[in-house]
Amino acid sequence: QVQLAESGGGLVQAGGSLRLSCAASGRTFSRYHMGWFRQAPGKQREFVGSISGSGGSTTYADSVKGRFTISRDNARNTVYLQMNSLKPEDTAVYSCAAGDPDYGYWGQGTQVTVSS
């Protein structure tokens, strides 16, 4: 069982940066690959990116590639989403998920709003 809690969301101007954190409970955090997803009002949930259990491999959606970076600290049971050069279209609720292999555990999400 894994419990996830996101933090770090907020309001930022276009071009700004935010770093989201996702803290996980449990002793086996490193066995899970972790994903970030987002959902904007009226839209389906969208994959943002993921990171392997060791942190050695990452993948990103084309829409965020080069602007967002995912990292993790297994000693702190935390995964991060560094978001740079934010755009208004990045506005959404961002959620993290833990997968082994399917994403079976989800956080509540944190709101990110980017103003133009």
Brief digest:
With 116 residues, the chain is mainly beta. Helix content is 0%, strand content 53%.
Helix content: under 10%
Low-confidence stretches: none
Strand content: over 45%
Question: Count of DSSP E strands?
Answer: 11
- Distance N terminus to C terminus? 40 Å
SSE order in H/E notation? EEEEEEEEEEE
Q: What is the quaternary state of this protein?
A: single chain
Structural class: mainly beta
> C-alpha Rg, in Å?
13 Å
How many H/I helices? 0
Describe this structure in words.
It is a single chain. The chain is mainly beta and 116 residues long. 0% of the residues lie in helices and 53% in strands. Strands 2, 4, 5, 6, 9, 10 and 11 form a 7-stranded mixed beta sheet that branches. It has a 4-stranded antiparallel beta sheet with strand order 1-3-8-7, with no helix packed on it. The chain starts with a strand and ends with a strand.
Layout of helices and strands, plus pairs?
Blueprint: E1 4-7, E2 10-13, E3 18-24, E4 33-39, E5 46-51, E6 58-60, E7 68-73, E8 78-83, E9 92-99, E10 103-106, E11 110-115
Parallel strand pairs: 2-11
Antiparallel strand pairs: 1-3, 3-8, 4-5, 4-9, 5-6, 7-8, 9-10, 9-11
